[in-house]
């Protein structure tokens, strides 16, 4: 990745990483590295999840019982922790997605005012 591409990456708002992890795990269990890569790939490499942010977020989600964890073997035959979305986490994903949609709509209204406002 070039220096220019790194500069174009966007830092995540607080709480956004939790939503992205929940959404990623909706597809099935995954280990930490796979979660980070799925978020990066899904954002066309705009979002980069650092280990220093990912693992505290995973621990927070476990504590809230939105995800569970179990030991397993990764695709490269190494021991790994696999995270799985719980039923409680699925419900929370719906709630968090709704909150995100409201926030994005509100910000969009401010950034792109109506034609009446633009004319005044």
Question: How would you characterize this protein structure?
Answer:
The chain has 120 residues and is an alpha+beta fold. The protein has one domain (3-114): Winged helix-like DNA-binding domain superfamily/Winged helix DNA-binding domain (Arc Repressor Mutant, subunit A), CATH 1.10.10.10. Helices cover 57% and strands 13% of the residues. The protein contains 6 helices and 3 strands. It has helices spanning 3-7, 16-25, 32-42, 51-63, 87-111, 115-119; strands spanning 30-31, 67-73, 79-85. The chain has a 3-stranded antiparallel β-sheet with strand order 1-3-2. β2 (67-73) and β3 form a beta hairpin. α2 packs across α3 (32-42) and α2 packs across α5 (87-111). It is globular and about 60 Å long. It starts with a helix and ends with a helix. 18% of the residues are buried. The model has no long low-confidence stretch (mean pLDDT 88).
What descriptive keywords fit this protein?
57% helix; alpha+beta
**CATH homologous superfamily name?**
Winged helix-like DNA-binding domain superfamily/Winged helix DNA-binding domain
Strand portion: 5-15%
**Helix/sheet category:** alpha+beta
Overall CATH class: Mainly Alpha
* CATH topology-level fold name: Arc Repressor Mutant, subunit A
- Quick one: overall form? globular
Distance between the termini: 44 Å
Q: Could you give the count of β-strands?
A: 3
């Amino acid at each position: 990745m070039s220096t220019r591409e790194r500069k174009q990456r966007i830092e995540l708002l607080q709480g956004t990483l939790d939503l992205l992890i929940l959404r990623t795990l909706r597809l099935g269990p995954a280990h930490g590295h796979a979660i980070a890569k799925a978020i990066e790939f899904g954002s066309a490499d705009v979002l980069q999840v650092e280990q220093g942010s990912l693992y505290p977020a995973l621990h927070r989600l476990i504590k809230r019982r939105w995800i569970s964890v179990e030991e397993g073997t990764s695709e490269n035959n190494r021991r790994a922790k696999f995270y799985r979305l719980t039923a409680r986490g699925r419900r929370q994903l719906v709630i968090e997605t709704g909150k995100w949609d409201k926030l994005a709509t509100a910000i969009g209204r401010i950034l792109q005012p109506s034609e009446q406002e633009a004319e005044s």
